[in-house]
Every structure is written in C-alpha cells, then in structure tokens.
Amino acid sequence: MKLTYLGHSTFLVEADGKRVIIDPFLEHNPKATLKPADVKVDAVLLSHAHFDHIADALPIAKANDCPIITNFELSEYYAKHGVKSHGLSIGGGFNFDFGRVKLTLAFHGAGLDIPGKDIVYGGSPAGILLTMGGKTIYHAGDTGLFGDMKLIGEMNKLDAALLPIGDNFTMGPDDALVAASWLKAGVTVPMHFNTFPLIEQDPQAFVNRLSEFGLKGAALEPGASVEI
Ligand code: NI
Ligand code: MN
C-alpha cells in the first residue's frame, strides 16, 4: 500500500491498482501540492462534514464518477447533489471493490456549513478504518483522545495510524502520543497541523517522541509518500 500525504488531513491511498482519497482539502489549502482536477480515484472517503475535510469532495466525485463514502446523513446530502454515495454509521463497515471501510468513533463537531445558508447537522463525525491490499490504516479524523482507541488498537493490526496533532480543534501532540501508544501502528503519521495559525505544531518533534514507546513515525511533507 502506498500512502501519500496531501496536506492537512488529506491522504491518497493506493493498493492493487485501486486509489482512494480521504478528506480532500486541496483547492483552498495553500500547502497542498495537488489540484482536485488531477485527482484520479475510485472513491472519496470523508471523516466528517467540516469544510477542511470535504471541500473538494463533490468535484472529485463528479470528475471520477466515483462514490463518496461517509456517515449516513452526509452521504444523503451528496446523493441529493447528484453523485454516487454510500452511507455508513459508526461501528459499521462494508466491503467495496477497492477494499473495506469501517467507521469508528470520533469526538468532534458535526456541522455542515452550506454557503449562503446556515449550518445544518452533518451526521456523526467519525474515524475511518480502511483495508486495501491486505493492509489496514486508521485515519482518526478530527477527534479528541478517547479510551476506546485502545480497543481500536487491540482489535486491528494497524499498518498505519494517521493522527491529528494540531490541538485547539483536535488532540494536541501529548494526547496524540497517548493515542499512538494504544494503537501500536506500524507507522504513525501526524496530520491536521500548520494549515492555520491556531494549529501550529512541530510534526518532527512529535515523531521523535514516538520512540519513547518503541514506535516508528513519519512526518510527511505534502506530496510525500510512504510504502507500508
Ligand atoms: Ni473538524
Ligand atoms: Mn478539521
């Protein structure tokens, strides 16, 4: 499996000739190295309805004629906007042709901000367990630390854990370190930092501290990949 970081919480995942993108936020992220028009994927996975996770979902799904896979309410919203979608609820998984997606808990907000209108309920925020090519990754979405991450680590042999470290809106580095120690993934990759002034962090310092737990990490620059 090839895992490419595209900035903020956006990842491109490739295995066995299939490609999916998680939480596409490219067009309006000056740190992103890829334009939405250049994204070629078989599915778009969304952790939750906040702008910095869904911004390019619709154009990418339209251009690729591929489904948006996310929580049920948000999937219904996209179905009404003329794209294929598949809704899951937390704890539920489904086997797609590219691999398996299961939603996990995430403790966060759920508002969908419709431009020119109001903020509406966007369904439960979630984390994503994605299995492709025999490898499993956990994209935690936006979340605070919670004890059931221990269970996620116990129930899954994780090849990668993608964890927010930005603080303010999500876990900060100290809590993310505790999460990583529970998840015990083959590689821990920080995300959701340095996009906005409120979430400035040192990803390399976070990765260095993972060795306290005998864990490996990778602080990826936007555009950089790891093979897992
Ligand atoms: Ni959020
Ligand atoms: Mn966010």
UniProtKB/TrEMBL annotation:
<dbReference type="InterPro" id="IPR022877">
    <property type="entry name" value="UPF0173"/>
</dbReference>
<keyword id="KW-0378">Hydrolase</keyword>
<feature type="domain" description="Metallo-beta-lactamase">
    <location>
        <begin position="7"/>
        <end position="192"/>
    </location>
</feature>
<dbReference type="InterPro" id="IPR001279">
    <property type="entry name" value="Metallo-B-lactamas"/>
</dbReference>
<dbReference type="GO" id="GO:0016787">
    <property type="term" value="F:hydrolase activity"/>
</dbReference>
<dbReference type="InterPro" id="IPR050114">
    <property type="entry name" value="UPF0173_UPF0282_UlaG_hydrolase"/>
</dbReference>
<dbReference type="InterPro" id="IPR036866">
    <property type="entry name" value="RibonucZ/Hydroxyglut_hydro"/>
</dbReference>
<protein>
    <recommendedName>
        <fullName>UPF0173 metal-dependent hydrolase EL26_17385</fullName>
    </recommendedName>
</protein>
<dbReference type="Pfam" id="PF12706">
    <property type="entry name" value="Lactamase_B_2"/>
</dbReference>
<comment type="similarity">
    <text>Belongs to the UPF0173 family.</text>
</comment>
